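Hey Z.,

So I finally got round to the adenosine-5'-diphosphate thing we talked about over coffee. Here's the setup:
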Amino acid sequence: MKIVHLAAEFAPLAKAGGLGDVLVGLTRGLIKLKADVSVIIPKYGFLPPLPSLKEVATFQCTEQGQSYTNKMWSCEVENCHLLLLEAFHPKNYFNRPQIYGEVDDVARFLYFSKASLEYLKNQAPDILHIHDWHTAGSAILAKDLFQLKSSVLLTIHNASYQGRCASWDLDAIGLKGQEYLQKLHDDQYPNAINLLKGGIVYADCVNTVSPTYAEEILTPEIGGPLSATFRQYKNKLHGILNGIDQSIWNPATDKNLPALYSKTEKAIEIINHKQLILSELQKRFGLGDNKRPWIGAITRLVHQKGPELLEEALRQTIQNGGSYLLLGSSPDPKIQHHFDQLKMKYADNKNVFFYFEYNESLAHQFYSCLDFLIMPSNFEPCGLSQLIAMRYGTIPIVRKTGGLKDTVFDLEDETIPSKKRNGFVFENATKEDLKHAIQRAIQFFMNKQDEYQFLVRRVMQQDFSWDKPTLEYLKLYKKII
Ligand code: ADP
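And the result:
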């Protein structure tokens, strides 16, 4: 079975969030099972030099009736076969400083989808696996323009980004946009085309990245106007929980850490190593001697992640005698400004630390030195941060939504077998519920150190690898072939 992924991200080369992690983790999982799998991403201008790079094809792709030259490059990254699409297009679609957030994102990714299919049309894979709105348009193109024989699976990593565009955006890539308006119009802006909806309608099968989120998007509260489409196509909708690549996220081998530790060590040794990593960071950032526990977040600052509650978590943490750390930044200038002000407000408080940057290496260090990770998300398709945190012996405090609900189980929840309980969970996205969860976590840390240390070791021993999800994807591939 030949599988080709089309995606905007692939970690660590091109990563903006969890999508990049999933692409590398799932691909490596499939390779482990001897699958024939490749990943196509754009050849972004910001990619580092790739030693094994080889040109594999030169071909044309039309847009607005103009023909442009493209090259496909191949290389091995993280033991995966990666194909990089280079477009010799006057708009330099992929020579931008970032993956997303450009005014012409729709045109960029529609072009990427079309050019990738031009490359694949004479060597159609059995499975074309596409991801999020960026490549959802390729489901329409594969069926209507290229009549590709591949079966198409669309994975929705986040249904709140949908790729709304004008009908003439489809004209540009050779589809008659007006003819799609009836079927693929946006349910909020009926004169616009919704590319994610296009993917849902045209793909042979659709999945989200956790079973709970697959249920939640059927409701208007989480699925928004697109929930009607999800309900209509419910019979082809599945939920497969993400994994994490346990060799990339591994505190026993992680090159980013000044000290290594493993789940096989005694709990006290693990705690000592975590403490050592914390001390290094305290020295590096001049933090002095802080109060414990450390509660923190490593996140994009966007509505999904509950920015108001992330701020409330800071207040609750320091009021209850802990320290608070936040690594992350916002694409929204208003939210970023608000957090900049907050940083100024707490500038003299040595128990508060903000770092407004996307920084992969620091993320690894913070995951390992935190005592608790806070994720007060408004919604969460899966969430990888809580899984990574647990792998590094950091206890999650999460809101009960989406993939957080599927992976974190409250220590006091008697409906869950005690061995499975691994964190603190709160129900509603309110300050009250959050406060209660943080208080419980801090009290647990302060009053039940032995139990806390035992839990740290136990969460590290859970299996959130890609082994099981990969088998589920294979099952889905076989079903649609
Ligand atoms: P999402 O994809 O919605 O952003 P996930 O929890 O699924 O959220 O995945 C987030 C990924 O991005 C994790 O690998 C996390 O470590 C990483 N990440 C988030 N913010 C930062 C940051 N500021 N620096 C480094 N990595 C980050």
